[in-house]
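From the pipeline queue, job 12 of 40. The input is one protein chain; the requested action is below.

Action: predict structure.
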Amino acid sequence: MSDYVNNLRLEEIGTGEKSGSWGTATNLNLTLIGEALGHGSELIANASTHTITIADGVLDEARALYLKCTGGGQACTVTLAPNTVSKVWMMQNDTSYTLTFKQGSGGGASVSIEAGACKIIATDGGGSGAIVYDVLNTLEISGDLTLKTSDGAIINLQTSDTAVIADEVLGRIDFKAPNEAGGTDAILLSASIAAISEGVFAADNNASKISFQTATSAAAAETMALSGAGHLDVTGDITGSTINADGDTSADDNAAMGYTAAEGLILTGQGSTNDVTIKNDADADVIEIPTGTTNVTVAGTLGTGGAITSGAGLVIADAGNIGSASDTDAISIASDGAIVMSGASVTASGTLGVTGETTLANHLNMGDNDIIKLGASADLQIYHDGSNSRITDSGTGSIIVATSEVQFQNVAGNEVIMGGLADGAVTLYFNNAPKLATVTGGVNVTGTLTATTNVTVSSDIRLKSNIETIDSALDKVKAMRGVYFDRHDDKATRAVGVIAQEMQEVMPEVVVTDDTEDKHLSVAYGNLVGVLIEAVKELSDKVEELEDR
């Protein structure tokens, strides 16, 4: 019986069949064979799956050797049926999305064709596990390959990766001699040109470099690279009759040469020791520019036909000399920076200006009325007028002595007259003994406080609140004890007063603790006036009460 089991789904006529109609069946089969060798098209539905089936014994463009897939509104998986057909297609994806071609329903390999691309694929007809092959996945051409178009032939080398990362090969051309009889290094990759990503690709980034790889022994390695920004990095020497560098260099250049009309030849480097080194034919350093500086070091003698102008300083070797033709060591500079003048004296006919610090190894001697002037208008002056030493400030502001501790001493330096401590006391002395000192709570006086008029304490009602009359004042006074005593710091004088610790029990409001290390207690004797006033009033009331009886 007739069947359609062959790969082109042609009618195979059984013995004794088609009597009188062989011509019709044969002509149809020839037509179908011609169709199989020709061009066809397939409309891909707007769906995620589609099936292309080669019909049995009837005209069907799916049978064509060259099949153009059109339509399609999304990425689609296309099944080639039946899965028993072994066939070759030139498959053109004329849709706007990737098409993935498979044959079997199982885990057989598939081939994806991007939008606009064309591939030669083949099916093995292996049933449910059938495989689809990318025929030209590895293409070997023994002869020359010539590409011709009217507007210039284009060779596209591209990656199928949908997430390009840094240092990923996008396309590469390799040169090698795998059949070389010498073997070993002779059959390894000898040269290569590759496009390599310089970072992760994104919507706003496709930075890539062209890497040129060559070899002398072992596999080829990168010897030259052209970055996406246009920078050329060469591992070895650059040889040429003329090297033209047009444009300025930038701070991030490892090593660069440039030229501008204004600056002329520009050399830029970022070495660990020197940014720029110029050597002679003996490979000896002649001129060096140390890394990160604007200094220039000349190894030999620097000869000039004119003057040498320095915008900053002139540095000579340790223990070097500066001089004239007749006096070569007129100025000698020691290794520690000390300057020795060969002349008996140094004379400045005008003003001697020093922009940096001046260090004197000996004294600065100035005569009477020779003034040290400080400030733009000589606001501060220090001098001796022949009778007195003077510090005169005629400018705005104050004389500020900024220090953690200041002392005024006698000429011998063995007595303190006045002293001050940052965040501490300001102290006045008499005969080297402290007499008055500022403390946290006010002022401490050592000795007798004498006033020619009144000693007052601020008592305005506007400064007070929560005012209450002292109650039981007479009882408080009766609880107090007046005593005679000798002070340890003044044994010559017999004193009278109260004991602070006892007063804490009766009237703690009049007891004050100082800020010394020993936390001594003091009594505000003036604050006792209020208690005494109220006590007298209570006593007066009692007297009047007795008189009324």
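Job complete. Helices lie at 22-36, 473-479, 500-506, 528-548.
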